[in-house]
Amino acid sequence: MKRNTSVPGFDSKEFANKFHYAGQDLGARPSRTATSFRVWAPTARSVELLLFRTGHRPETPRVVPMAPGAKGTWTATVKGDLRNRYYRYRLVHPGQAAPVEAVDPYAVATGANGERAMILDLRTTDPAGWARDVKPPFGDPVDAVVYELHVRDFTIHPSAGSRFPGTYLGVAERGTKGPGGVRTGVDHLRELGITHVHLLPVADYGGVDETKSGRSYNWGYNPENYNVPEGSYATDPCDGRVRVREFKRMVQGLHRAGLRVVLDVVYNHTYRGGDSHFHRLVPGYYHRQNAAGGFSNGSGCGNEVASDRSMVRKMMLDSLVYWATEYHVDGFRFDLMGLHDLETMRRIRRAMDRIDPSILLYGEGWTGGDSPLPADRRAMKTNVARLPRVAAFNDTIRDAIKGPVSEHHQGGFVQGAPGFEERLKTGIAASVRHPQIAYPAGDLWNGPWAKQPHHCVSYDSCHDNHALWDKLALTTKGLKNADRLAMNRLAAAIVLTSQGIAFLHAGEEMARSKKGHENTYNLPDSVNAMDWRRKEKYAGLVAYYRGLIALRKAHPAFRLKTATDIRRGLAFLNMPAPGMVGYILQSPAGGNLFAVVFNATARRRTVKLPAAGWRVLVDGRKAGVKTLRRLPGDSCAVVPSSALVLAKT
Questions:
Q1: Structure pTM?
Q2: Residue 6 pLDDT > 90, yes or no?
Q3: Which of 148, 230, 335, 395 is an active site residue?
Q4: Is 335 in the active site?
Q5: Is 318 part of the annotated catalytic residue set?
Q6: Packing angle of the helix pair 481-497, 468-475 (nearest 10 deg)
Q7: In CA terms, which of 82, 109, 155, 302 is 20 to 30 Å from 446?
Q8: What mean pLDDT is predicted for residues 159-163?
Q9: Which residue ranges form the domains of the chain, and what is each CATH number?
């Protein structure tokens, strides 16, 4: 059956009114006796359903015509038990010489390499006890200490001691040990004390052949099927049920270990543009166009997804709700969030609140290039104040700590480079306005862009750009490892005592190196794998991170909830020399008074304190909640390249 394909422009209200489908039955709905299918393709002349027995092997499909349905959808109901079979759609579009085939955007499982959707009864994929899965308790966003890792990197190195290296099962595997008997994997994360595991993209992506295990590598920012777990992390990528079941087992295991789960989601672009499943279904609708009528490229990846169009927005919302409910996920990190419009992000926050208000939302508050989306509608860092409980990464503090990521050989505050003190202060205060900070004139990007501390993610490194240890090596030629370790500890102390949400890159606590490479998205395991031998080698550094995390979690003063609390409770001190930043800190709720001092200079410095009677909790070598020593008077000596955290009851 064919449809009249005369339609108004995609960005018109008329198109949205005529073709917005609000139903919740897109995709395949199987039972033992029949399966119903519904796909949104308002511009197609005809659509056929192609049914397969296998997920990727060559075969002649069964062809079922689909009928036009409500609001631009096409439907079919096929009798019989089709569960665990596979399908695609074949479409004829006006003006196209040949039909095109596409995978259902609402597919929940696929065969190998995501080329055929699977008809799946999701309840058959629930592991034992899944209905009783309990999220670890969690309160305010600023209580989070997030640890960003790549599924394969985490356990693929032989030193991880995993029975399931490089897989979902490996991420949550308990009892693994590395050289010297050190805890690895999830037991290491429990030992470290973090609250959230941030997984680099785990939705099905291109660039890796799932049928050839380990032959290629990718971070996962090549999205293909948004609601399907990536098959290369499953023990069997060919049976669509396996990846779903093992993903749930991973989440369940992390929850049992007391850890929440954040997914890195990539809705801002698709791996392919004109050859993407979206473009094959509704040519031109899912992607923004430039003035010449081609794909706009705000992502830097060849295209950008049009989040502000109603059915794209619905797709994003439905997808996020699906991950949060079907997989019990506890948060989302948005890649290039600046390409999403503010209204879509507000609706996402409201949708998550209806499921679980403690779900964490944060993202990159920038784009990868210019976009036709107007600047005042973008979910940029400088607009994040207009988004309740959605955070952006604070690249200002990142670059202040270790030097600009774009200038590989330029250091920052911890390497002793001059001029970073005020930018460091803005990050310490979670980029909310503070009366003691000298903000750069007319520069909101490095100024007080956050309205509340929950808008700000404080970090010094992530998967992008150089690992912290490699950046230190590039910028400190001729220095000894001991000096770089001191700088690493100082960077950690800044991040984990700053206001806002704390974020760590996997392995920075054990001086993780990627052999000097910068963006390692397609480099082999020999570069990307976490080498757990470094945990034994750098045991003192690991202990330092563990102590800082314990300090942060023990004292609300390091996790102030409002901008008013920060302005009232945080007072910067006058420092005796450039290359130093210090402040007094107390929670409005009371408790300990703290003094925090950072000395990035090469000299021992003495700092005058406002009173006497201080206890040392953190110095250049050790960190934690226990008193290391007491200071005799109202001043403190701070050794080179070190932090000092003092408490006064």
A1: 0.97
A2: no
A3: 335
A4: yes
A5: no
A6: 130
A7: 302
A8: 98
A9: 13-125 (2.60.40.10), 571-648 (2.60.40.1180)
